[in-house]
Prior knowledge:
The complex is a heterodimer. Chain A has helices spanning 15-67, 73-85, 125-144, 193-214, 218-272, 306-339, 342-352, 354-382, 403-409, 430-459, 467-479, 482-492, 499-506, 518-546, 550-558, 563-591, 594-601, 612-621, 626-651, and strands at 89-96, 101-105, 118-119, 153-156, 162-170, 173-182, 415-417, 423-425. Chain A has a six-stranded antiparallel beta sheet, with helices on both faces. In chain A, strands 7-8 form a two-stranded antiparallel ribbon. Chain A is built from 19 helices and eight strands. Chain B starts with 11 loop residues before the first helix and ends with a helix. The model of chain B is unreliable at 1-7 and 290-294 (pLDDT under 50). At the A-B interface, helix 8, helix 10, helix 11, helix 12 and helix 13 of A face helix 1, helix 2, helix 4, helix 5 and helix 6 of B.
Amino acid sequence: MSARAGDAPERPPSHRLRFAVGLLxxxxxxxxxxxxLLDGALAxxxxxxxxxxxxxxxxxxxxxxxRAGVTGDAVRAAVAAWAKDHPQxxxxxxxxxxxxxxxxxxxxxxxGDEAAPxxxxxxxxxxxxxxxxxxxxxxxxxxEGASRKxxxxxxxxxxxxxxxxxPLEKDGAVVGLVQxxxxxxxxxxxxxxxxxxxxxxxxxxxxxxxxxxVGERRAVLGVLAVVLLAGTVWGYGAQSAAKLExxxxxxxxxxxxxxxxxxxxxxxxxxxxxxxxxPPLDPARWDADAFRRPYGVVRSDGSVDExxxxxxxxxxxxxxxxxxxxxGGVSLAVLLFVGLGGASAFVRTVxxxxxxxxxxxxxxxxxxxxxxxxxxxxxxxxxxxxTIYNTNAPLTDIWVGFKNYVSILSDFHVATRDADxxxxxxxxxxxxxxxxxxxxxxxxxxxxxxxGLFLALVLNTKGLALKPVYRVLLILPWAMPNYITAxxxxxxxxxxxxxxxxxxxxxxxxxxxxxxxxxxxxLTALATNGWLSFPFMMVVSLGALQSIPSDLYExxxxxxxxxxxxxxxxxxxxxxPALVPAIILSVVWTFNMFNIIYLVTQGEPGGSTEILITQAxxxxxxxxxxxxxxxxxxxxxGILVVYGTFQNRVTxxxxxx
Amino acid sequence: MRSRAGEDEFPHLPLHLVLxxxxxxxxxxxxxxxxxxxxxxxxxxxxxxxxxxxxWDRLRAIVPWPKTVTLSNFTSVVTDQPFAQWMxxxxxxxxxxxxxxxxxxxxxxxxxxxxxxxxxxxxxxxFLVSQMFPGTxxxxxxxxxxxKWLNLGSSRIGLILVYATTAIPFCVWMLKGYFDTIPKxxxxxxxxxxxxxxxxxxxxxxxLAKPAxxxxxxxxxxxxxxxxxxxxxxxxxxxxxxxxxxxRFFVGGFSQQWGYFAAGAIxxxxxxxxxxxxxxxxxxxxxxAGSVKG
Lengths: 657, 294
């Protein structure tokens, strides 16, 4: 603390203290996040290494059992020999589909009466099911020539051990399965927290020492703190990257060793039981993914393919670099916020306005978690290539920059000329949909305001009988849930049974198939939305009309103003403060009026009556192009913000909030 | 002709004609739903037309009165279909949404109206801007947050939280406009009498703002009762559907059960429409007070 503690509260702030606290918080944040990421990456690496080791072992075992003929004493002898060589494998079970028999088992429960060979018991149905799944997977993948279903099943049990199963084959057909339950591997050592701590403590200590020399010079202190923070982030990042790379190399070497080892053990068992040794074993193929496709990192001679290891190490480095940039950016912001006095000003402000913030906090917290954060997250998705197939991938892995925006906004092929010269519109084009949306909004709001205002004027007539009855009935369309309204109108526009076509036929017209041309389809939605939106404008206008003092009109009449002059001179100006916000509101509502288009026209025909918001929905939930749909939605938001700003300039509607 | 008392009134007859016509247009679809619901059938035609219909046949087909009146659609939609469960879900969700939403909106709006604090302008503007967030942009992140992170998939709590917060901005703006019109002198007098800020809020301001609170409640209730996209996305289990999600199943895709739909639609609409009509006098004053600044 400063030596002048106890002075008046207006004492100048200590830049040294602020930057020191800022550096402490920022580097602790950066290193803390880095530590968690490194810990996660190491654990993930250990899991995938264990998976690969398990895979090599089970493939080797399956190879031996295949050669032992899947059924018979040879299999039991081979499994017994195998179990002796592999203390890591707690329970080995071999199941043959033919006769539903448990051919061999090293499970301690399967001794005495329960010893193999015997029929599978009812409780062991899951074992049989697992085998059938593998058989189906192998057959499907073969039939499709693709790798879609797992041919080696892994399941992690609650105690961290791995249960793994592979198919057994005879003459190209899957005839059984071998399943191994492995003992849990030793837990992964977490990264050293002492190292992490030193990456926080050292720069702070350096800063404090340097601060003694520099004194209260803000610029120098700031630069120093930023440089130290950058050093911390870079240093811890580089150290983590190196640790990851060492880990990866160790894993690859270890797997290569296991491949050689399992190959030797398998050959020895084949030789001792005089099982067929031809064709020669190819242990390198055992290091494979769940579709039994070799990774190819281990060569046939048991050595490691350096190029492949280097490539995966490079991928690790890219991931670390991306994380570094992100963490570095955030922690730099924290440093500057605290260092430049933002934090202490913040604390002071919160303290003086305690009551106000307490009242705002609950609503704000809810908004942040469930409105603002999803919004920002959605914008982040818009810069990725997110689809239904990669929802679990981290955003940085599928980052594509502005690609989605470019492909939406730079595509001007709204219409092409056909061979016979007619225009053919591309209804999926953004600008077509934009045009439909603008037309939709303008027509709807115009109809709403005109009809609403007109009815309000009529209803406002003094002494009109039945006024409350009319009012209640006219509000009805607004009161109805709009998805119900939409479905009702869709029914009424039905080509064959719909009421609208019946009316047309009464007047001698022929029935219209409403949803087959863009224009008529648009009209159906317009009718629906017009019907449900005029009451809002009517209610707003009516309220405003009633608040106009009647002496204004009397004075006007004394001056001999005509009815039209009264309307333009008194009524409209008095309505303006109520109508303008209502219009702004209803423009935004109509622009995003999802339910009506989605339920009434469904974009028919061919997406021509889609508005932007429903189009975005279809990209997301019918085509599953999440990234593209998010970019589309962001563009919609941009349009609305531009509109709002413009409108605000013109009307000053939000003045004096 | 023009007298001082302002009798240059428009003749009432044409006004009544206009209003009757408008009312017919407004009410017809509602009557149509009742007709389909009471017909006891699943068809969306009011009357079957003969192969060579006359004008009278066609007129009959648009008069909203069923050939036979039966309540069978109502009884089977409530008993045979899981519709009662869906209504219950909707009721729980909408009522709790109202309580949570009104509470959050009232406190925030009061702070915005009465206190001057840094971030006030930004807060109000951010609420306003949030009204422009396209729902499609929020849907995927909301799904991830609710279902994957908070583990609230197929749960009513998740929906309640989402609805209550999405209703906040509109409610806050409206309430804030109303609070602005309540004279500050009342509160200043209470302060002199030794009232704490919370007493002032609960005992003085809220009772005075009843009309605006009523509109807020109505708006929150309607949000919770009518919303269907988020509900359709988040609620996976059929027993947890809300009424809007369930209703859509009657006439969506390949099913064309218009009778069930109409009966369900009427049952679903009755609470909101009743509430709406009951509160509509507040609605007018609340809405105009919110937009016309005092």
